[in-house]
Specification:
mainly alpha; 2 helices; elongated; 59 residues
C-alpha cells in the first residue's frame, strides 16, 4: 500500500513538473514575419539544387 502511495505522489510530481516546463519553455504563438518568408517565385527560381528536400516535378 505504501508503494502505491509513493507511486501516486511521484506521478503527481511528474505531471506538475511537465506542466511547469511546458508553460515556461519560451515557445509560443508569434505572428509571422512576412518579410522573412521567401516568395514562391524566389524558391522556384532557385531550383531543386538549392531547396533541400524538394523533389522536382517530372514534365
Amino acid at each position: 500500500m505504501i508503494l502505491l502511495v509513493i507511486l501516486v505522489v511521484l506521478a503527481i510530481l511528474a505531471i506538475a513538473a511537465t506542466v511547469s516546463a511546458v508553460l515556461s519553455d519560451g515557445y509560443g504563438q508569434r505572428p509571422t514575419d512576412w518579410e522573412r518568408v521567401p516568395d514562391r517565385d524566389t524558391v522556384r527560381a532557385a531550383g531543386a539544387a538549392h531547396t533541400p528536400g524538394v523533389i522536382p516535378r517530372q514534365g
